[in-house]
Amino acid sequence: MTSAETILKSLEGAEMPYEWRKSMRCSSCGRVGPGPTMLNFTYEGERKMATVHNVFAVIRGSEEPDRFVLLGNHRDAWTYGAVDPNSGTAALLDIARRYALLMRLGWSPRRTIILCSWDAEEFGMIGSTEWVEQNLVNLGSKSVAYLNVDCAVQGPGFFPSATPQLDNLLIEITKMVNDPDSEGMALYERWTAANRGIRIQRLNGVDSDFAPFLHHAGVPSVDLYYGRDFPVYHTAFDSYNWMVNFGDPFFQRHVAVTGVWGLLALRLAEDPILPFNYLPYAAELQDYTHILSDLLEGSSISLHPITAAIQELAAAAKETLEEAKKLKEDEATDEHAALKRRILNDRLMFAERGFLDAEGLQGRPWFKHMVYGPRNDGESELDFFPGIANAISRSSSGGVNSGGGEHNAAIQHEIWRTARAIQRAAHALKGELT
């Protein structure tokens, strides 16, 4: 604070806001700029080579050991890391403790559960990315879902993100967990009241370890947070002292995140038929298309390929739900019934892989998901269909319709690529060859 006061007193411009003066306990500590002060900052760091250590705990499945449900959190921190990532690490360790207690009582999951502690996330998701790349074939053929928690607790408010086929399951789970900030309420009630309805965000960014699983391997994913945009992010103040005074004084938010995370994994590992529902996915894609249509209004670009593919996905999703319902009602336990469930589960699991394109995004081929992924232009109006968003950004510095035929053709090409990805997902869901 002393350093801040010295800097602010050297500036010109408007006076500091009252809130700043009050927090600094001074009547007039200075101004907010601009200039004329110039500050020199120095940074001292150590450049060295180091080995990345990922740590895993595996609970082998009793009936489908070759199907994996993965829970992950990174272990490295910028400083003390009480929030980022140690709040998530504490939750992961508590889930491990609870699962261990169940195992002592004789429990084993239907499918294999893998608890992942990633290293070198702060350097660009190195630990998780290298592991996904090295195990891409196995992950592509065997992964049910990846459940990520980075900063479990940053403050108040529940902020889940997921691929849409997991929406309904996430909602069900939040009805089973107590809200940490309201006595006698379920997390679902407080969450929906705060947002005036259900608000599940999507995984477009490349800001945590879900990125390689979803964007590169096409594994259905979830990312959970309590609170957001905490003021001590990546500073020396991200400490246990901050957590117990501001972030989560009674650690009840930690308990809530742990409950949601652990129960999600149990349902995905235990349900005979995977609790995936692709109707919300189709509805979400339809909403995206309406937004895109408004953006492209007046151009000669056609969205028919995408709308037709979405209709195909919606039909496949509906058929799959009906098939799942019949199989749940079928109480047969013979090999034929087990095989039918296995085949349906594989279709539910592999549908997300259909959204991948082997060539990847133009200029960024590592990112292969055609629905969710990073945009080249951070100012794009679209936070979905990254290939289309990037094509529009490249062509429309002066507006979508100013790019001419060549630019429109590039956008149309990306629309076709996205439509084919949606169609592949629909065919995978139906179990048909394209």
UniProtKB/TrEMBL annotation:
Q: Domain named Transferrin receptor-like dimerisation: which ranges?
A: 301-430
Tell me the keywords, alphabetical order. Answer: Carboxypeptidase, Hydrolase, Protease
Which Pfam families does the record associate with it?
Peptidase_M28, TFR_dimer
By its UniProt entry, which SUPFAM superfamilies does this protein fall under?
A: Transferrin receptor-like dimerisation domain, Zn-dependent exopeptidases
Residues in Peptidase M28 domain copies: 54-241
What would you give as a GO molecular function for this chain, any one? carboxypeptidase activity
Q: What family does this belong to? A: Belongs to the peptidase M28 family. M28B subfamily.
Question: Under what name is this protein listed?
Answer: Glutamate carboxypeptidase amp1
Annotated organism of origin: Datura stramonium (Jimsonweed)
The opening ranks of the lineage are: Eukaryota, Viridiplantae, Streptophyta, Embryophyta, Tracheophyta
- Chain's gene name: AMP1
